[in-house]
Structures are given as structure tokens and as C-alpha cells.
Amino acid sequence: MLHLALESRLQAAVTALYPGIVVDSIRVRPASDSKFGDYQSNALMALARERKVNPRQLATDVVARMDVTDWCEPVEIAGPGFLNFRLRPGALESVLQAALVGEHLFFSVTAPELRRTVVIDYSSPNVAKPMHVGHIRSTILGESLSRVLRLLGHRVISDNHIGDWGTQFGMLLLGWKTMLDAAALDADPIGELERIYKRVNIGCKEQPETLERARAELVKLQAGDEENLKIWREMIRLSQVQFDTIYGRLGVRFDHTLGESFYNPWLPEVVSRLLELGIARESEGAVAVFSDGTLPQKEDPFLISRDGEWVANPALIRKSDGAFNYATTDLATLDYRLRTWSPSEIIYVTDGRQQLHFRQVFQAFHRWQPQAATAVRLTHAWFGSILGEDGKPFKTRSGDTVKLADLLDEAEERALRVVLEKRPDLDSVAQREVARKIGLGAVKYQDLLPNRQSDYVFSWDKMLALTGNTAVYVQYQCTRAGKVVRDAGVLPAAWTSGPALCLQEPSELALARHLLSFGLSLEAVGDECRPNLLCNYLYELASLYSRFYDSCPVLKAAEPARTTRLALCELTARVLRQGLDCLGIEAPESM
Ligand code: ARG
Predict the structure, then answer these.
(1) Domain coordinates of the chain in residue numbers?
(2) Ligand 1 mean position to 474 CA, how many Å?
């Protein structure tokens, strides 16, 4: 947007002064304080240091070569060489005008040659287990990242790395064969799978013979036994039905669901390659990756400090019984993704407890395929836990983990109570629909709003509050802004033929300026994998809108204020709607 346009003019001026230099790091950002204008750049000071010239002189020379009079007041050089840009109202008005006719919505779609391919690995629940609240953060964060990056024009490949392999299947198979209740499986498949798993698990702890039988079932499955494979496939199918119901409710979709089992054929090869290359070695019958001593000890994921001493912290890739580990599968997965999609980035969205796992996987892969590894950015976008109001991990009253489906039901029910009270005039279908959008929106927004690395306290009251930084507040302002335009009966053609916009009031200008930085907030979300930046942007926009609406009459104003204000309402509604959509949240038409 405008800051990018300013940025390229600034870069051109620097190139005019120093032909051929790399100007990528010359950036224009929003001003930290509106006292200094709308945008600023501090990049020239670093450049001056590099070229060993006086920074103020350099700034003067660059500004002399830069023409931005069409958008800005004369550029101000401040302090040791900061540049401050102050937009002229005319520039703001023409950006708004272009947005009104649909030329942009305050963000730029990445040019084809700069488009990145990004694989996002998120949600990734485990087969035969109900999805619990821990999976909600991964699903909601991952979905939001994928929507933002897609909107910015990148090629996003979403891959649900479901846990469909592992030792639990030995127990599940034994349970299926010896204690399955067909009627219960019919009524609640996951509940029944969970029940048999729990019972066999207890059996294994109490009787060595049950443990032996479960192991034998697992060995048969791994060896390709037809009967066991058939049951295993059925368990995956039943789980997938449950996952899909939840994804449908949440509006989440994946391009691929290549579960862990998909990589089984490659696992022996991964281990033998790592052995050959000396990256892994045998240890007590197992195979593991150890430190190669090239990293500083503090950064080495294969070392751990114990009693002031650095000791080995290997990553197992083959157990002594020949079975492969979580890390082995992730190495094969990484290799497969690079070969198949050549992404420039892979983002893994899981909870913080997997940090060591991913540091080890990334580092092992670097040693295995150094060239491929340098071509891709590997990001572990980890997140903290959801806590109950008592500060302990979020549980049901009876101490069980909270199931995602129950949680979504409760969110909709609670929202319905609010809607019934506030909107008794709506018919019951409409009430339910609004409640669904508010309830699901509340759960998602509460999850996206905190910095993802912090734990947060799950609170029904807070997330459904009508004021404050909540989804329902943002949804409400979005609806309100849209309604003004509908009530005015403005037709889309009016935006091209109506009177020119004219911004005058401080609250109009503040709103217009904030609209302009929508793109910056989207880019920041994509770069840092932090949708909370977008939540805060939208909350600020909703608040500025509310302030503007309280101080400026719209429908009763004289021209050109009337058209200008209607335009601000329309653009606010569009940005809020688009922004909420990036968070996976729907905005009701009326509420
Ligand atoms: N299934 C795992 C879990 O529930 C998450 C998988 C994350 N992705 C990965 N490539 N390891 O904890």
C-alpha cells in the first residue's frame, strides 16, 4: 500500500545516490507516534554507518532525490537521520477512493515472482482419540495463518499430520477384538474406541500377559496382517468422520491429510542414510542422533545441562525393537514435503512442549541435507496452554479433558442466551444463526488474541463480553458500519460518480489512517506467525469507528461530509469483515 509505494520511492532515491547497492533493508514503517507523522524510516542511519558518511548529510542527499509531493508534506529529517512522512489529506482520500471502487482493500497481493510456497502443518489430532481443547489452538492458529498468507497471494499448502500410527494401535486392536461393544461403536465411535483403549491400557499395566498380546497385535499390524490392517483403517475412517464434523463447524479445510502412516515406507531408508552419514549411531540396541559438536553448547538440541555439565540428549530414530519414532517420521515428512512442493517455508503449529522435538528434527535435517535445508525456512510456531480459571490446565468439573465438540456446543448455547435477551424480535432460526457466529467467534478470538506463546485462562464471561477486546465487539461494529450504508441505500455506482471525498474531522482522519495500515498488519501476521497482531488491529479499528460514529453524524450530514462518512462506514465494514474472515470468524449481517 502507500507505505510500500513510499518505500519504493525511497529505495529509488537511494539507488540514484549509490547505484547498484542492495536496498531491501530500506523500509518505511508506520510512525511509532503520530506526532512524527504517518510513516517513518530509520534505515538511512544504518546505511550511513555502512558507507561511513554523515547520516544527516546522507538523509539530506536522499530526500533531495525523492519526489513524494503527490502524497506527502515535505519530508522531515529528524534527529540523527530519521525520515518522517506526513500524508496529505488528498493522498488519504485518493487511497480511500481507490478502495471504494474495489482496486484494493488496503493490502497488496504479492507479485507472482515474489509469491512463496508455504506448507502449514496444523491441527494434527490423533486417531481413535477425541479432539480436545489442546488441538483447538493448533487448528485455529494454523487456519488463521493459512488464510492470511493466502489472502496475501502466497501458495499455501495445508497438511493435517494426523497421528494414525504408533504403539497405541496394539492396544486398540486387542480391545477391538476382545471387548468391542458394537452398539456403542455405532452410537459414539470415538467414545467406544477411547473406552477400549483405556481398559486395555489398564490391563497392560496389571497383567504382563495383556501387554504381550497387545504387542503381538502391533507386530502383526506392522507386518501387514490383512485383518489388523482392515480394523486399523476402520478406526481411521471413524476418527476422520469426527474430525471432519469439527472442521466443518470451524470452517477449516485442509489440502492434504497425510497422516504419520503415509511415511512408513521411507522410515528404514531415513535411518540407514543417517547411519551411513554418521549423523546417527547405535546405542544400546537403538539408533539415535547425537550432537556433532558444531553448535555452541547452549544452542545444541542434542545436549542438555545436568548439574552444570553438558551431557548427551540424543533423538531416538529407531527403538531397540525395530520400531521407529516420532522424530523419524518427521524427518521423512520434511524430506517428502521438500521433494514434493519445494516450499520456501514450512510452519509447524503445535504446543510448546514439542520445542525440543522440532529443534532436534530441524538440526538433524540440516546435517542430513544441508543444501535443501538452507533453501527453506523451518518455523515452529508454538503456543502455550489453555488454563482453567484456577490457573491449572483446563479440565471439566469432573477432571476430564474438555472435548472440543462439547466446548463448541456450550459456546453456541451461551451465545444464544445473550441473543435471546438482546434480540427477542428475531425469529428463532435467525437467533440461532447469530448465536452460532458469536459463540464460535468468541472461542476463536479468545484463542487468537493472546500472544500465542503465553498460556491463557479460558473464561466464558470474558470471551462473550459485549465490550472490550472481544470478537463480539468487533463483529458488532462491523454490523453497525454495514447497516449505516444499507440504510442509506447507497448503490455501488455511487462510489464512482458521487462527490469527491473530503476528510476533515480528527476522528475521520484517524479512522482513515488506520484503514490504510490493514496490509501492514496482515504482513506482520504472515512474517511472525502471530494472528494476535490482527486481532489488535481490528479491535483498534472497531474502537476508532465507534468514536467516529459517536462524534460525526452520517446520514444527516451535508455533502461532501455525508458521502465521505458513508465511505468510511463502508470501508470499515469491508476491512472488519475481511479481517475477521482471516481469523476464521464470520460477521453476522445483523445482530
Ligand atoms: N499428532 C501430534 C500431537 O497431537 C502433532 C503433530 C504435529 N506435526 C508434526 N509434524 N509433528 O501432538
Answers:
(1) 2-87, 168-252, 264-380, 404-582
(2) 32
CA angle (276 as vertex; 274, 277 as ends), nearest 5: 65
User: Average of pLDDT values for 454-479?
Assistant: 94
pLDDT interval class at 368 (50, 70, 90) = very high
Contacts of residue 421, defined as CB under 8 A and 6 or more positions apart, other chains included, come to none
* End-to-end alpha carbon distance in the chain: 32
Domain 2-87 has CATH 3.40.605.10: no
Give the pTM.
0.93
Query: Of 367, 391, 366, 390, which Cα lies nearest the Cα of 376?
Result: 366
The three cell numbers of residue 441 are 467467534
DSSP state of 499: P
Long-range contacts at 77-80 (CB < 8 A, ≥ 24 apart):
78/36, 80/45, 80/55, 80/56
Please choose from 121, 124, 157 the residue to mutate so as to test ligand 1's pocket, defined by most ligand atoms within 8 A of CB. Answer: 124
Report how far ligand 1's centroid is from the alpha carbon of 136 (Å): 13
pLDDT digits (tens, 9 = 90+) for 219-239: 999 889 999 999 999 999 999
**For ligand 1, is residue 3 a contact (CB within 6 Å)?**
no
CB of 163 within 6 A of ligand 1: the answer is yes
Ligand 1 proximity of 362 Cβ (cutoff 6 Å): no
Task: Give the pLDDT mean for 427-434.
Answer: 96
| pLDDT score, position 471 | 97
Q: Give the rounded distance of the alpha carbon of 18 from its chain centre.
A: 39
* CATH label, 404-582, candidates 3.20.20.140, 3.40.50.2000, 2.60.40.1180, 1.10.730.10: 1.10.730.10
Q: What is the DSSP string of 392-432?
A: SBPB-TTSPBPBHHHHHHHHHHHHHHHHHHH-TTS-HHHHH
- With the most atoms of ligand 1 within 8 angstroms of its CB, the residue from 141, 350, 357, 383 to mutate is 350
pLDDT tens for residues 375-409? 999 999 999 999 998 888 888 878 788 888 899 99
CATH entry 3.40.50.620 includes domain 264-380: yes
Q: With 0-12 CB in 10 A as exposed, 13-18 as middle and 19+ as buried, what is 445?
A: buried
Cell numbers 510452519 correspond to 347
**What single letter denotes the amino acid at residue 143?**
E
Sign of CA dihedral 487, 490, 492, 496: negative
Handedness of CA 547, 551, 552, 555 (dihedral sign): positive
The alpha carbons of the chain give a radius of gyration, in whole angstroms, of: 28
DSSP 279: S
In a mutational test of the pocket of ligand 1, which residue from 161, 167, 263 has the highest number of ligand atoms less than 8 Å from its CB? 161
> What pLDDT was estimated at residue 305?
94
Atom 5 (ligand 1) nearest CA: 124
Question: By CB neighbour count within 10 A (0-12 exposed, 13-18 middle, 19+ buried), where does 181 fall?
Answer: exposed
Burial 244-281 (b: 16+ CB within 10 A, else e): eebbeebebebebbbbbbbbeebbeebbebbeeeebbe
DSSP 132: B
